[in-house]
Design a protein that fits this description.
By secondary structure, this protein is α+β, with helices and mostly antiparallel strands. The chain is built from five helices and eleven strands; from the N terminus they run ααββββββαβββββαα. The protein folds into two domains: about 35 residues; about 190 residues, no CATH class.
């Protein structure tokens, strides 16, 4: 009996010796060729996306999944909705308040900011543009009848970080997340005024005791890019800008919780945030250059 005649559909193998048939081999070759052609065409259309895929990343700096579905800001790298914080292998940039602080999205009555609770703050869904400047300041002294000046060390500092990231909106959930991010950064630039209704320090509570009255804007914490880049850096928002472009579509986004209100948001817009790293005097006094250079002070927020 010939090889083709002895082929069985159940096993995909030839009878007798169990060897794969030419039909199966040809099918595998055709499948591989089709996959290669598809990848080549995708690379020509979007070379930037092709480089990310070769690095094992999707467009949101997330680990690519076999399903091919695009990453979203409220999913971790395993594709799961988060209930508290972010997993250790999710290195997307995130700005958040302290985990148990009774502020902003941690308050149970904050429906507008509710989408941020699943990601414990704002996660940039597309890898943002980031500028970091480390400064060492020296004062100068001009010497009489000398070809060179003298410089004396004054101090070092980390300048304000500029973060600019794209926020695409293709559905209601992404629109609600963008709106929550906008209000989060707006609120992060405001002080506590002290009127009735300010938080009393208990999650979900509001009343007449204004323990935060007169307090400056809330402290945020910056995390991202793994264990040795942004190690939970304490910072404050010094400015926030949302660009509403004219050449894109605007979609209607209902408010979270379904109270009948809605907002028009662009399908593609940019959020730019300037944050200033801040260190308390007590913590700054613990700095050690050798330990810092060896990476052993990373968990204390030094950068």
């Amino acid at each position: 009996m010939g090889v083709v005649d002895n082929y069985t559909a159940e096993t995909g193998k030839a009878g007798g010796n169990g060897a794969a048939t030419p039909i199966v081999k040809i099918g595998a070759v055709i499948s591989n060729v089709a996959t290669s052609v598809t990848k080549a065409v995708s690379s020509l259309i979007n070379p930037s996306q092709a480089r990310l895929q070769l690095a094992g990343l999707a467009s949101g700096a997330d680990i690519a999944k076999n399903t091919g579905s695009p990453p979203t800001a409220w999913l971790n790298s395993a594709g799961e909705t988060q209930s508290s914080g972010v997993s250790g292998d999710d290195w997307r940039l995130r700005l958040s308040v302290a985990p148990k602080s009774p502020l902003l999205y941690n308050i149970n009555t904050s429906q507008l900011l509710h989408p941020l609770r699943n990601t414990d703050g704002v996660i940039f869904p597309i890898t943002p543009n980031l500028q970091i400047t480390h400064n060492a300041k020296y004062s100068s002294a001009s010497l009489t009848h000398s070809n060179y000046g003298m410089f004396f060390y004054e101090g070092s500092e980390v300048s304000a970080l500029t973060i600019a990231g794209e926020f695409p909106v293709q559905n209601i959930e992404e629109g609600q997340y963008l709106l929550a991010a906008i209000y989060f950064f707006r609120a992060a630039t405001k002080m506590f005024w002290g009127g009735v209704g300010e938080s009393t320090g208990t999650l979900g509570a509001a009343g007449e005791t204004d323990i935060f009255a007169g307090a400056p804007p809330p402290m945020l914490f910056l995390n991202g890019y793994g264990a040795h880049y942004f190690p939970n850096v304490p910072c404050v928002v010094t400015s926030f800008m949302h660009t509403m472009p004219e050449g894109v579509d605007y979609i209607n986004v209902p408010a979270f919780g379904g109270n009948g209100e809605s907002t028009r948001l662009p399908t593609q817009s940019t959020l730019q945030v300037n944050v200033q790293p801040m260190m308390s005097r007590v913590k700054a006094a613990t700095f050690n250059l050798e330990e810092f250079a060896a990476g052993r002070m990373i968990t204390k927020g030094f950068m």
